[in-house]
Design brief:
CATH class of the largest domain: Mainly Alpha
Number of helices: 9
Largest sheet: 4 strands, mixed
Oligomer: single chain
CATH topology of the largest domain: Glutathione S-transferase Yfyf (Class Pi), Chain A, domain 2
Order of helices and strands: EHEHEEHHHHHHH
Helix content: 40-55%
Radius of gyration: 18 Å
Strand order of the largest sheet: 2-1-3-4
């Protein structure tokens, strides 16, 4: 599979290097969406060929570099020239001013990051429904615990998170079209991805909860219709959801 190359907007503009596992959306997808929505030039390094100096070995080389002063703990991480930034929320916080995906005031930047970290919390809880004991174990080794975890997630945690997103959208002084101020931010894009993942993994439970959060659904639909996002979603660069990622569709865990 070839790396995703985007033509730089200006001649001589250096492409960002995104490092993430090549076969899943996972946490890397939140970064991909920001880069795609902004039309930013980037290389999805691990999806490139080893002959071109890309591929998974390059990603692993950064993780295993014993001499690195600021080594990333895990993918995703972003390389921008000589700078390497790990952790999804930190990557987005770093990229956002360059991509114009955050409002300018300090209060808006901090609030956007707070929302992003809350999204990250929910992503972790969604993942932990199918791996409640340990990520190192197979799902099949923890099915009974997964059933209990998913029941609590679908009935309590999913509504609690989504109702919070609904509330902050409705209470946004600049209007309910965006989570922060009156412009598109990376938090909007990440909430779109979160809804996509929940609908894939828990179609029945997500439909029930989203019926009570219409403003969240409207935001999702607006993001989906953005020209650059729509083009990305139809492209080969968008990896389909699958049962190796964060959001996994196990029908027995979809509890209404």
């Amino acid at each position: 599979m070839h790396a995703a190359h985007h033509t730089p907007a200006t001649v001589g503009c250096m492409a960002y290097e995104l490092h993430y596992w090549p076969t899943i959306q996972g946490r890397g997808e939140f970064v991909r969406l920001a880069l795609e929505a902004a039309g930013a030039p980037y290389i999805d390094v691990a999806r490139g060929g080893e002959g071109a100096g890309q591929g998974v070995p390059v990603l692993l080389g950064h993780l295993q570099d014993a001499d690195a002063v600021h080594p990333p703990f895990a993918p995703p991480f972003l390389k921008d020239g000589g700078l390497i930034v790990g952790q999804t929320a930190a990557i987005l916080h770093y990229l956002a001013p360059q991509l114009k995906l955050v409002a300018r005031s300090e209060q808006a930047r901090v609030w956007t990051q707070q929302i992003q970290l809350t999204i990250a919390d929910m992503v972790t809880e969604a993942h932990d429904t199918h791996h409640p004991i340990a990520s190192s174990l197979y799902y099949e080794d923890q099915k009974a615990e997964a059933l209990r975890s998913a029941a609590a997630f679908c009935s309590v945690r999913m509504p609690k998170f989504l109702h919070w997103f609904e509330r902050i959208l409705v209470n946004n002084p600049a209007g309910s079209r965006h989570l922060v101020a009156g412009k598109l931010s990376y938090a909007d894009l990440s909430l779109f991805q979160l809804v996509e993942g929940l609908r894939y993994a828990f179609p029945k439970a997500a439909a029930k909860t989203l019926a009570s959060t219409p403003t969240v659904v409207q935001l999702h639909d607006r993001i989906e219709a953005l020209p650059k996002v729509a083009a990305y979603l139809k492209s080969a660069r968008r990896i389909p959801f699958n049962e190796q990622g964060i959001f996994r569709c196990y029908p027995e865990l979809d509890l209404r």
